[in-house]
Amino acid sequence: LQRILGEHPASERKTVVRHDRLLGLLLPFRAFGDVRFKWSPDMLSRLYDTRPDVLSAISESVRTLPPHYLTPPYLSAQPEVTRHLMKPADKFLVLATDGLWELMHRQMVVQLVGDHVAGQETSGLLCFNV
User: Name one Pfam family in it (predicted).
Assistant: First the structure.
């Protein structure tokens, strides 16, 4: 959060992160792809105009600039690396994209993985929850 706020003018402080999302839309602040949060409006317009073959699968809502899109780039592909020292009591580590956390609560993820590690069948529960 500090990175994104520090990279944009104070006048954007209320719009750059809204509802814990980048420009009120995107959950991660770092990602590969999602060029509409990285490139200038001019660059995006040229891409949309010159490569309709590449962009034919992209919906019109994605071609529209996000609200308050004033000083791109907003999204970075530079990873944030953290370390976690596994302790003997730790049974597993979940590495996931934001999509998992949008679909499932962390307690459900832990339950599913824990049940799987314990040898219990979890695929039915997973399909039911997703």
Answer: PP2C
